[in-house]
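Bit of a strange request maybe. I'm writing a small parser for structure token strings and I need a real example to test against, not something I typed by hand. Could someone generate the tokens for this chain?
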Amino acid sequence: MSSTDPPSQTAAPAALADAPHLSTRRLDDLADRARRAGPADSPASTDSSGDGEPPADGDTSGESDALDVFAPATTERLGSVPACDAADVAAAVERARSAQAEWEAVPATERAALIDRFGDLVLEHREELLDLLQLETGKSRRTAVEELFDVPTGCDYLADEAPGALAEERRRGVMPGFATATVTYDPVGVVGVVSPWNYPLTLSMADALPALAAGNAVVVKPDEKTPYGALALSELLEVAGLPDDLFQVVTGEGPTVGPALIDAVDYVAFTGSTETGRTVAERAGRNLIDCSLELGGNNPLVVLDDADVDEAARGAIDACFSNAGQLCLSAERIYVEESAYRPFRDAFVRETEALTLGTGYDYDADLGSLIDADQLDRVRSHVDEAREAGATVETGGAHRPDVAPYCYEPTVLTGVEPDATVACEETFGPVVVVTPVPDAAAAVAAANDSPFGLNASVWTGDRERGAAVAREIDCGTVNVNDGFLATWGAADAPMGGFGDSGLGRRHGPEGIRRYTESRTVGVSRVGPLGFPDRIPTDWFVRGAFAATALGRKASRGVRRLKARIGLR
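Reply from user aminoacidic:
Good idea to test on real output. This should exercise your parser:
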């Protein structure tokens, strides 16, 4: 595919009028769920009449307490939600905090059962939620399905594992036989979740549901571009039986709502850019509250010389172009051992050219739209800069307004300089750089030559070799013969980034316990454990050191025995 041979497109742009399971009235009802504080405790205007175009910069003709929402597929105005301020955030957190005390007392098994019921409701209402996802984000139906599936899957894991992860644990005491140690896990209180626009359902729930399972209240601040998804899920949580006020949604601009939320809650879970993540971490640190941050990535994909290049090319399509590349886990840099480079490049270009573009409410399109004009400008600037510096556009490289206003072709670049912006920064669009390297060691070195460390992928015909190479790549998750689902879909395993890609982990027991305060309770069975009163101190000290030496020798013997019989 070249700029003169564009990828095929499917249906014409579609938005609210074409959504099979949505209406203006439904969006207005969802907007009403975002509550205001004080005298303004009434929903902002949700009049959905508009001229079909976003307002120009500086246009303040709309209501000051309302935030307009637009469909990326057509730029039409969908409606508006309240533009909450600091007082609204404080009121929401106060309501949530009042509700949390009773929720904490609910047994963990009952909390888990409620989340399980919520998963069923998500599946029952899937058609409306899929329409909503496409309407807000402009993504293809296929990508919307992938996102939606993740929510009930996460509910399954929490229903099965959360009670155990939160149960009291016996640990080895200071003097086995004489003292015990027990660890308890108590909720932190109110958790603030700041979720992004690219996966508004998955990434809000991946942070919010474990917090609820752990006994916390949650206040979610969805991205201003995609507020309706969080509001729809808040409704389903209510139907599932979640107590009133335990899950709050505050809509509004990030610079206004974000700081107010961080200042009011007891923990912050943030997904977004590295630049904003630093600001979030700094403010959380000043408040002495903990946070988890999933931030940017410039993710590498490595193709070894023994890989099946056709299979690797097909896998790289999903790894690079899912959600039009607007995925924090997407591969943006591909390094291929020289002997496999040309066959892989040709196969990858061929697979890329077969992709279809579209925003219809059907399953015909592979890629949908970028989210807005700013994201389109970022993608175009990265590609244009590389092209002007001598890079080759193997396929793609063009804006496609005939498909949707912000649609951009899936693009493969070669001959890119290592210091080019597209090679060093996160593009967050359907653009990937393919580069030959002499050997696997060079591929690992290139993969690690980045301040980011979120996700990576290794392709090989030898899985053991692939796993060995994966352990050398400095990323929080590394997949062998898969792009990202092998790790993201492993709900029992932690997921997060190294370096500039973030702090903390979601998923697994770690993703549940991050929302708790651990308490250690030590119990002495023999009274005070200090120096005894009835034994001369010098005798006791000599005896204690002798016992310690014997105990250490016995422990080493036990460890060696376990190693011999394969227990370690």
